[in-house]
C-alpha cells in the first residue's frame, strides 16, 4: 500500500527580489527561477524586469537583458522548453488584453518578439500555459469578449502556432484554470467560469480528441487561480480561490492552503499531508507564480512565489514543495 505525502520548506532570500506581487509568472531553467510581471496594486502592472533566483545560493538578481523587452503586464504566463523561456499574453496598464508571444534565451539574456498577429491565439489574460520538450501550450483565460476555452500549441522547432479542436460545451470558457502535460496528454483542471469550477478535462494531441474526466477520492473543492504542476503521473495543485470576492479582482475572496494530487492513471484525488500548522507552510493564497523543476538531487519539486493573501495583501515569500510516495 502506498501513501502520497509531501513537505513544504520556506526558502531564505538573499539580495533584492521582485517584492510583494500577484498575477505574475515564474518558470525554472536549470537551477534558476525566473519571475516576470504582476501587480502590487490591483490591475496596475509593477514593472517589466526579469528577476532571477539562484536555487543554490538563494540569491536574487535582475537580468541585464537586450532585445524586444515585453512591456509591463499582469495575468501573464511563462513556460520553458530547454534553455528558452516563452511568455504569452497578459493585460497592460490600460487593461488591454495582449497576445504577443516572446522568447527569452537564458544563455544570451536576449528577448525576442516571436508572434503578435492573427496567427497567434486571441488576446487574453489570466490564462494558463505549460510546456513539454517541443511545445508550449496555452489554454483559456479572459478574452476581449469573455472567457475562453481554446487550446493552442506553439511548436518551438517549426516556430508556428497550432490551434487544436475546441472542446464541447461541457468545458466552459474559464479564467485561472490549471493546465498540465502528464503522460503525453494535456489536462485542464477547474478554473472560474462565472462560478468556481470543479471539472477536469483531458485532450489527447495524438488523436486530437477531448474527454471530460470523472474523478473520485478526496476531491478538492471548486477553485481557480491555483498553482498546478505535473510531476510523474500526478497533477499536483496547491491553494487557489475557492470563493470569489464581491469586489471581483479588487478583493481577495477566500483561499485554500491545501495540496492535492490527482493520479492520472486511477483518476483518484488524494489530499497530500503537508503539515499546514508549521511556519514552513505557505498557508492559504492564490494568484501565485509557480513552476516545477528538477533540483540538484534529481527530485522534481513545486516552487511557489508570492501571490495574494486572505487579507488582500500581496506576498513576497518563496516556498518549495517536495512530493514523495511512501510505501506502508
UniProtKB/TrEMBL annotation:
<dbReference type="GO" id="GO:0030234">
    <property type="term" value="F:enzyme regulator activity"/>
</dbReference>
<keyword id="KW-0456">Lyase</keyword>
<dbReference type="GO" id="GO:0019760">
    <property type="term" value="P:glucosinolate metabolic process"/>
</dbReference>
<dbReference type="GO" id="GO:0016829">
    <property type="term" value="F:lyase activity"/>
</dbReference>
<dbReference type="GO" id="GO:0080028">
    <property type="term" value="P:nitrile biosynthetic process"/>
</dbReference>
<keyword id="KW-0408">Iron</keyword>
<protein>
    <submittedName>
        <fullName>Nitrile-specifier protein 5</fullName>
    </submittedName>
</protein>
<keyword id="KW-0880">Kelch repeat</keyword>
<dbReference type="Pfam" id="PF24681">
    <property type="entry name" value="Kelch_KLHDC2_KLHL20_DRC7"/>
</dbReference>
<keyword id="KW-0677">Repeat</keyword>
<dbReference type="GO" id="GO:0005829">
    <property type="term" value="C:cytosol"/>
</dbReference>
<dbReference type="InterPro" id="IPR015915">
    <property type="entry name" value="Kelch-typ_b-propeller"/>
</dbReference>
<dbReference type="GO" id="GO:0005634">
    <property type="term" value="C:nucleus"/>
</dbReference>
